[in-house]
Specification:
It is a single chain. With 296 residues, this protein is α/β, with parallel strands linked by helices. It has 2 domains: 188 residues, Rossmann fold, CATH 3.40.50.150; 78 residues, Orthogonal Bundle (DNA polymerase, domain 1). 45% of the residues lie in helices and 15% in strands. The chain is built from 14 helices and 9 strands. A 7-stranded mixed β-sheet has the order 5-4-3-6-7-9-8, with helices on both faces. Strands 1-2 form a two-stranded antiparallel sheet. The structure holds S-adenosylmethionine. S-adenosylmethionine (SAM) binds next to helix 2.
């Protein structure tokens, strides 16, 4: 589904993996533009959808009114790291019943990436912000100012896989003025690494690393997975789509451990990946890996 340019990745595969049953409840932990939510609703499921981004929630309220009104969709502006307490209070209020599946489509939406003001993109010019949740206190530009050189280097290497992490971290810290905009950072990196036509933009990895750090993306995944397992009905499914090696590794190791502990079945020793046709139509999907776990 295409909504205002965000193309949902692995739409059919993820919905099939959830095995949606009519009138049963599912959680879409990363609503975005609601592509997966829409499909679950079309298949007769009911959805509690989370997103930290106010714009995503506003979009959902506008576009999904016909599902919200009869109570088939509940939109929550919350971090999925707090999933247990939110679901408990919805249950106490009698708004929902047991949960049969939880879907995570980690990372950012196209709207977030493309918006200059949000500061995610090395292509535009805006303040280096990168907060998906604008209630958070620390922006990307603050991280650059606050973190010492060696930790900045580690961050670029660990979350971005950036080979020139040291040179870039040093250049940021030695800059005569603070680096506060996407253009300044992108130009600084181009100066160090150069730019080759047709190759990945040289700032891609550093921008990715900063985004993951600002939004504590790996920590959120570590926090939510045990809660998700606890919340599910027996035979309920967790489906994850990750675009970043570190995020996918966290899921992979957790599912493997759960299977060893006999908590259920890990269906994805090899992850499910998009078809060549999907990648051709949506290059953003090329790094996606989907994993499935079925609770005992
Ligand atoms: C890749 S997009 C999801 C796209 C969606 N599946 C669709 O088809 O439109 C990821 C969304 O998850 C949200 N998000 C990321 N981390 C989150 C978190 N910890 N809690 C809640 N929402 C989060 C982002 O704001 C973004 O809107």
């Amino acid at each position: 589904m295409t909504n205002n340019q965000h193309i949902t990745v692995l739409l059919n595969e993820a919905t099939k993996a959830l095995q949606v049953k009519k009138n049963h409840w599912y959680i879409d932990a990363t609503f975005g533009r609601g592509g997966h939510t829409q499909k679950i609703l079309e298949e007769g499921g009911k959805v509690i959808a989370f997103d930290v981004d106010q714009e995503a929630i506003e979009f959902g309220k506008k576009m999904f009114g016909s599902s919200i009104k009869p109570g088939n969709l509940i939109l929550v502006r919350e971090n999925f790291a707090n999933i247990s307490s939110i679901i408990s209070s919805l249950r106490e209020d009698g708004q929902i019943e047991d949960i049969d599946g939880i879907l995570f489509d980690f990372g950012t939406s196209t709207q977030q990436l493309k918006s200059n003001e949000r500061g995610f993109s090395f292509e535009g010019d805006g303040e280096l912000d990168m907060r998906m949740d604008n209630r958070l206190g620390v922006k990307a530009k603050d991280l650059l100012a606050l973190i010492p050189t060696n930790q900045l280097e580690e961050l670029f290497r660990e979350f971005g896989g950036e080979n020139d992490a040291r040179r870039i971290a040093k250049a940021i810290k030695n800059s005569p003025h603070p680096i506060t905009t996407t253009k300044e950072l992108s130009n600084l990196i181009i100066n160090i690494k150069g730019r080759q036509q047709g190759k990945l933009h040289p700032a891609t990895k550093v921008f990715q690393a900063l985004r993951i750090a600002v939004n504590t993306e790996i920590e959120n995944i570590m926090m939510v997975l045990p809660q998700a397992l606890e919340l599910l009905n027996s035979e309920g499914r967790i489906v994850t789509i990750a675009f970043h090696e570190g995020e996918d590794r966290e899921v992979k190791n957790t599912f493997k451990l759960w299977e060893q502990e006999e908590k259920g079945e890990n269906l994805s020793k090899n992850p499910i990946i998009p078809t060549n046709e999907e990648i051709k139509g949506n290059s953003r999907s090329r790094s996606a890996k989907m994993r499935i776990f079925i609770k005992k």
